[in-house]
Amino acid sequence: MGNREMEELIPLVNRLQDAFSALGQSCLLELPQIAVVGGQSAGKSSVLENFVGRDFLPRGSGIVTRRPLVLQLVNSKAEYAEFLHCKGKKFTDFDEVRHEIEAETDRVTGVNKGISSIPINLRVYSPHVLNLTLIDLPGITKVPVGDQPADIEHQIREMIMQFITRENCLILAVTPANTDLANSDALKLAKDVDPQGLRTIGVITKLDLMDEGTDARDVLENKLLPLRRGYVGVVNRSQKDIDGKKDIKAAMLAERKFFLSHPAYRHIADRMGTPHLQKVLNQQLTNHIRDTLPSFRSKLQGQLLSIEHEVEAYRNFKPEDPTRKTKALLQMVQQFAVDFEKRIEGSGDQVDTLELSGGAKINRIFHERFPFEIVKMEFNEKELRREISYAIKNIHGIRTGLFTPDMAFEAIVKKQIVKLKGPSLKSVDLVIQELINTVKKCTKKLANFPRLCEETERIVANHIREREGKTKDQVLLLIDIQVSYINTNHEDFIGFANAQQRSSQVHKKNTIGNQVIRKGWLTISNIGIMKGGSKGYWFVLTAESLSWYKDDENQRHQ
């Protein structure tokens, strides 16, 4: 591949990046790219601005970068910027570029410092840049600010991991030199996904702010925390320089002077600084694209072949053909019915491992929730005894009865059976609610057809509601049946006869248990462990135990 063709690799990937962003998807292809990772105030923005030679990135306290910024640098004679969401509009004033980034960020994330993984695509044309594409990611933070959610650190980490876990992504880990490099958030994340350091490029910033007598020589020489692609040190403008509008070109000269004059970095000055970093990244990205191009091309051809087969199926497609519309409608309704049945029967294609749903939850209502509601019913034994006493006395009236009347028994039992209506109806309500939730989950596949989705959900939910009334009537009827006739001859019913029989069985068992089966003297001899030869014992064997007494001691053993 010639030099000219090599130079065209990065613009080619830029066009693919724009095409995928316009489609709102990545087409399941991992584009070769460089992701910029670092903590807040690590100097990521300053590094990118030094590449361009312009102040164009938002600045401030807290999280400033709240959406990924896909920055495409293109070498050109003219100097201007373009946004993918503002096609045809050229920005020559880079202050306007900053305002547009802030406005586009707020449009998606709001003004409450929230974050979003939807990228902003910015292309900068300039004679001072080399062809390069970088993705500036939000800075790693620990503490929520303002209205930010409590899990903001987790959200940012997840967003960063979405990019750097891809094998085709190089990681530009930016770390300030005035902090402990061993605890660098950027290097930690990079090591999690790239333990061998094959995809990571280290950038050490704020070398001029290190404590006097200390330096980062061992790191920059790739001795302390070695990376396959090495480290590059840079010196950015200070906050005072930025506030004072110090020219970036002057800052670059000051950076060059710093490395040439510092005794620890003088011997590696040619491999330090922003210009060298830009050359390294341009070369690394170009080589990376070249290395990944064969596999990328095969994946792209595979997807193209798959799409061509799909297009072939629609070659004779006529959108206005009523038969095709009817067929498509029937297929979607049929699929909805199949999904609903699978969720209830438990044979779904996708198994939910986070919570119970569908048939499993209904099963739990029947076998756990309903018995729990019954057990939870308040039962006051003292109150029940008083009710029984009042019932018996009221039935006897003025007379003094000798026997317990059946009417008193039925009155008390029926009152207890009626209490089952509450838990039973509550279980019906829970099942109905779960069925409606299942319907809503099944209609998600119809989201591309909002009206069909809404009507399907409404019709099925109404049908379930209609059956709800009939189900409750049936449940109440079953309880009324139990109330209307109490079968005292049932084997589980403990009446007087059964109670008397059980009592006699228990008594008989206790009597047998205490009967002596045999008793007498037992002589044990020729046992080596017993001193004094043979010994005699008086034993008593019953149905439940064996007891014996020594002849010389009044002591019992079992």
Automatic annotation (TrEMBL):
The keyword Hydrolase applies. GO terms for cellular component: cytoplasm; microtubule; plasma membrane; presynapse. Belongs to the TRAFAC class dynamin-like GTPase superfamily. Dynamin/Fzo/YdjA family. The keyword Hydrolase applies. InterPro entries: Dynamin, Dynamin_GTPase, Dynamin_GTPase_CS, Dynamin_N, Dynamin_stalk, G_DYNAMIN_dom, P-loop_NTPase, PH-like_dom_sf. Pfam families: Dynamin_M, Dynamin_N. GO terms for molecular function: GTP binding; GTPase activity; microtubule binding. Residues 28-294 form the Dynamin-type G domain. Keywords: Endocytosis, GTP-binding, Hydrolase, Microtubule, Motor protein, Nucleotide-binding. This is dynamin GTPase. Its EC number is 3.6.5.5. Residues 515-558 form the PH domain. One of its GO terms (biological process) is receptor internalization. CDD domains: DLP_1 (cd08771).
